[in-house]
């Protein structure tokens, strides 16, 4: 019996040896393709490839097991103590490169998470969006600029018809005839026109919107 046991042992050793040649451990960073993340109690399932779209991110470093000894729950999911509400948009951004938000989701909340996970391109996108919002909210009401033009009666219609975009006719003042051409009196007029100047918060004045321009042109033509 002794001899057989030895043989059995040798056989097993052989089999184990054989199996080891097939089970060469995968190179670092290419462990299982699927990764489970437990973010604040909500489990997300994604791939290593998705998480590593952004090489510098916390998520990429996490799933490559670099220097981050993260706790795991009983299912083996990485535990991350963050709000799961805002993690969806983060994960979707890594999947397809677009920021998609439900209308009631605050961009500031997603920005907070993007900064925590260190996802550079997403941080830039959200900051741009927030700046655009600020711009529309804090647009200063327009200032009016007035200009007075002096002209003669016969030049009046031409001047009115060739007024440049955005200028609006305000008032006409007859200042009487100032000089004679032979027998004909030339009546002189002062024509007052105004234009709206829009100031953006940055202090640069921008042109009025297309609508405002069209409106002032119509007013002018009436």
Automatic annotation (TrEMBL):
It comes from Crotophaga sulcirostris. This is KCD17 protein. PANTHER family: BTB_POZ DOMAIN-CONTAINING PROTEIN KCTD17, POTASSIUM CHANNEL TETRAMERISATION DOMAIN CONTAINING PROTEIN. One of its GO terms (biological process) is protein homooligomerization. GO terms for cellular component: Cul3-RING ubiquitin ligase complex; cytoplasm. InterPro entries: BTB/POZ_dom (IPR000210), SKP1/BTB/POZ_sf (IPR011333), T1-type_BTB (IPR003131). Residues 33-134 form the BTB domain. One of its GO terms (molecular function) is cullin family protein binding.
